[in-house]
Design a protein that fits this description.
The protein is mainly alpha-helical. The chain has helices at 3-14, 17-30, 36-44, 50-58, 67-76, 79-88, 95-107. This is CARD domain-containing protein.
């Protein structure tokens, strides 16, 4: 197995600023339960696949089992972190988390 590409992939996935912000809030994100309309937005924005969308809906809107997929989406496209924050702004109970994520995005020049 070629270890150099694997190390690069791990560094790119976990080491960039957007991924670090996501990791910082991952515990809080894992406790979130979203409405069907917010889950649909996650899919529409490209944060999750259609299969994951159905899985989240079956689990009552919990994001706890989708953190890895969300992390990969954020590391591939940093603007998706702000999209996640905007989606979380849709619900009163997730607004404080959304505001924290969006505020941290604003502090980082790599995230649009």
């Amino acid at each position: 197995m070629n270890q150099k590409p694997a190390a690069t992939l791990i560094r790119n996935t976990y080491g960039d600023p957007a991924s670090q912000i996501f990791q910082h809030y991952s515990d809080r994100i894992s406790q979130v339960s979203l409405t069907d309309s917010c889950i649909q937005l996650l899919y529409t924005e490209g944060l999750i696949t259609e299969d994951t969308q159905r899985k989240i809906e079956r689990c009552g809107g919990s994001l706890s089992d989708t953190l890895r997929e969300l992390m990969i989406a954020v590391s591939d496209d940093h603007s998706k972190l702000r999209s996640l924050g905007n989606i979380l702004m849709e619900l009163e109970e997730t607004k404080p988390l959304a505001q924290d994520i969006i505020k941290d995005c604003g502090k980082t020049s790599f995230i649009i």
